[in-house]
Amino acid sequence: MQIQLQMALERPFLAAVAGVIVLVAVYLMRLNQLMKSTPDEVKKVSPTRWTKKLLRETYKTIERSPITTKSYARRIPPRLDRRYIVTGGSGLVGGYIVLQLLERGQPPESIRIVDFRPPNRKDMATGPASAVEFAQADISSSSSTSAAFAKSWPHSVAHLPLTVFHTAAVIVPSDRSKLTYGFCEAVNVRGTQHVVDAARRAGADVLVSTTSGSISLRPVGFWLAPWRIWSAASQPRDFWQVADEADFFAPPRQHHEHYANYPAAKAAAERIVCAANAPDLRTGCIRPAHGVYGNPSDNTVGGPLNMGVAPTWTSHIVQSFVHGINAAIAHLQLEAVLTPPESASAPQAGRPFTITDPNPPITYSDLYLLISSLAVTPFRVILLQPVGMLLLSYPVEWYILLLVKVPRLRKVFPPLMGEVKHLQPALFSICTHVIATAAAASRRVEDGGIGYTGILTTLEGMVQEVVEWNHEHQIAAAAGGEVVYQSSVSLADEIQKATAGAS
């Protein structure tokens, strides 16, 4: 009798538990459906997809006529009789700035690369680029930065005015907690202040800094209220966003109003640079749109090329990208505007400009089709369910923060390594629809812009990168070797380990 009574009491409880499980499962299925959708507003901006025929035709064209600094030399702003310090000059945008300066006739002795490591790009290993001076520096250190800036110059150029292009930064795409903000803050915020201070002491009168289009993005709100998720018009909050400069002209956001530590740090750095604008040091910033690419070491194209496999839930995601060549051109265009001493009061001074490739945004499926159709190395896509990955991202973040909060546990539990440590909730905010606009930068100089148009479309730029990838791998294969690249994200991990060891 007692057993029967207990069973009778358990049945409603078990039924309730089963009902909750079913409701949660249905909710997650609906959220997964929404995360795999493309809003109509976004479809209108990116209505057409690349085809294999288009990709192969473009490949043949670029293979016959590769894109080099010589091929677009006439579109590089004219040479200025100045000296140049390029922080981060070994990297993607900084490297293209160095190459474009040389192409327009700047002598190598008038350029200095200040970076954590020497250039290892193949397009900077020979010719005039190989003669450019390199000064090793850790910009998170004031003394290290000052020493690199204070080095003497050759007599032939020592008298020239000085421009500083500040492109050095670390990219940590997934951390969002203030507990893990220290590294980003040290390099991207305090490092920027060190560069501004060193530039003043070195007598620079123009400083153009690279920031990020991600500054304007807000965290995406995936977890809709259950009574809202069933609406036909429902979608996660800020599931698609426009990357522009409007946020700069509003009060600074709080840390939690940025989707991650990286954009929060870049926003703070941007305001340091823009606030420094004065008649004796004219400043401004370039915000490259979401993903910068243009070398096999980049994360956008080079990342999947190097891995050979793309586990993804973003094939349908529409985003704007920008080639490093286009980003570099924008820096030179802003420098040209800021060169006259009276430009400190010009509308272009002391503000950022967002730039993107001169074409509609593409989807990640376009990128994956490009790699699978054109690359000589193996490549395949593994489709994942976004809601499952989102759920997994929370325990990854909790584990990482637990080891930060309780350092003693590191003796027992190992830190997460490789790509898995980046699978945190913040990553999902940057893996949603982002449409960048270069409207302000594209205005004529007399109308307050910098006259930006862009050299390459995303199609041309990405195909060019695969052409270079194939060429290098074919040469390596013939010699019985292999080609290895290091991405900016893995470089950030290396810098973090090195600076932690030094501390």
UniProtKB/TrEMBL annotation:
Keyword Ligase found: no
Transmembrane segments: 12-29
InterPro entries: 3Beta_OHSteriod_DH/Estase, Lipid_A_modif_metabolic_enz, NAD(P)-bd_dom_sf
Residue ranges of domain 3-beta hydroxysteroid dehydrogenase/isomerase in the record: 85-212, 256-371
Residues spanning the signal sequence: none
Family that this chain belongs to: Belongs to the 3-beta-HSD family.
Protein name: 3-beta hydroxysteroid dehydrogenase/isomerase domain-containing protein
Species annotation: Cercophora scortea
